[in-house]
Amino acid sequence: MKKCLILCLVLLICSPARAWWDAGHMVVAMIAYRHLSEPARAKADQLTKVLQRDYPYLNHFSTLGPWPDDLKAEGVTLYSPMHYTNLPYNPRGVALPPQPKVNIVWAIDEALKVLRSPKARDIEKARQLGFLVHFTGDLHQPLHTTSYYTNDRPSGNRGGNDFPISTFGKWRNLHSLWDDGCGYLSAYNDINPYGDPKESLLAEEVQRLEQLARQIEQQHPKESLQECWILDRDFWVLEGHKLAIRYGYEGVQKKGENGWDQRIKPNDAPSEYYLEQGQKVVQRRLALAGYRLAELLNEAFGEE
After folding, report:
1. Is 153 exposed, middle or buried (0-12, 13-18, 19+ CB in 10 A)?
2. pLDDT by residue, tens only, the chain of 304 residues
3. Cα(30)–Cα(59) distance, rounded to whole angstroms?
4. What single-letter DSSP state applies at residue 36?
5. Whether the Cβ atoms of residue 131 and residue 72 lie closer than 8 Å to each other
6. 263 forms bridges with which residues in the sheet?
7. Long-range pairs for 79-84 at CB < 8 Å and ≥24 separation?
8. CA separation for the pair 47, 121 (Å, rounded)
9. Which residues does 179 contact at the CB level (< 8 Å), separation at least 6?
10. At what angle do helices 38-52 and 272-301 cross, to 10 degrees?
11. Segments of 86-209 assigned E as strands
12. 252 forms bridges with which residues in the sheet?
């Protein structure tokens, strides 16, 4: 039996920091899958089946999206620093700690090297395909690019994990709010191949994900997003950094009549206006992540 929505949310809220919950990662993968060339899709399907030998519940390309988060849940923490990069948002001029060299940009580049390598075995390519799908999704969640440094948090707020909000248990901090697409993805959190027990996606669940992918594509057609052709990962980080500040940490709660906007603060409950603005950002980021992932994969092995 699939877990009910409420139980899924409770487990996700209690889980380690992650970017997008399962639904967000799977719809990014689904958008990408729909835009793969025929050779790239055939290779992606082949490598998914290779990984499925060890992880039987990976029965569709879209299930690769959340897989690295499940590794963390199983205690495999080696890859944890690769899920994010923390550009500083530092309006108060706090002395900054050194930034690690191993981060999400490094991880994406390394995954692509393996996928392009004629020497790498299929099992290594399959694992790196899973990481590439996941990390591309991660990098398009704005709060996975930026940490807010203050006198109270001189080491940063861990991408919003230490920015508490008041929502009666649904989202415990700003990071989890954005993982859930500011509520845009909440209705899909019951699609969870990594529950207890772990189960393959049902046909109707794959169909629901594809319907969501089509909906996002209709709202943001590929031809309308000129930046989807920009595959520079450092550019993606800067995109997310700007969005994290404007709509995340400094997101408007209420438009002031006197021209002074009320912005979100720790322990606030996000307003309907804040959520509406965030959801617009989320939909666009999900579309860009899917289109860009498809471009990376088409380039990596589309001609094989």
Report:
1. middle
2. 333 333 333 333 333 345 678 999 999 999 999 999 999 999 999 999 999 999 999 999 999 999 999 998 999 988 988 999 989 999 999 999 888 889 999 999 999 999 999 999 999 999 999 999 999 999 999 999 999 999 999 999 999 999 999 976 689 999 999 999 999 999 999 999 998 899 999 999 999 999 999 999 999 999 999 999 999 999 999 999 999 999 999 999 999 877 789 999 999 999 999 999 999 999 999 999 999 999 999 999 875 4
3. 13
4. -
5. no
6. 252
7. 79/107, 79/131, 82/106, 82/107, 82/131, 82/135, 83/17, 83/18, 83/19, 83/134, 83/135, 83/138, 83/144, 84/19, 84/138, 84/144, 84/145, 84/159
8. 10
9. 12, 18, 19, 20, 21, 24, 141
10. 100
11. 87-89, 146-148
12. 263
| DSSP letter (8 states) at residue 153 | -
Residues 54, 124: Cα–Cα separation, whole Å: 13
Q: Tell me the sheet residues that pair with 262.
A: 254
Locus of tokens 């307003």? 271
User: Looking at the whole model, is its pTM more than 0.85?
Assistant: yes
3-class state of residue 95 by DSSP = coil
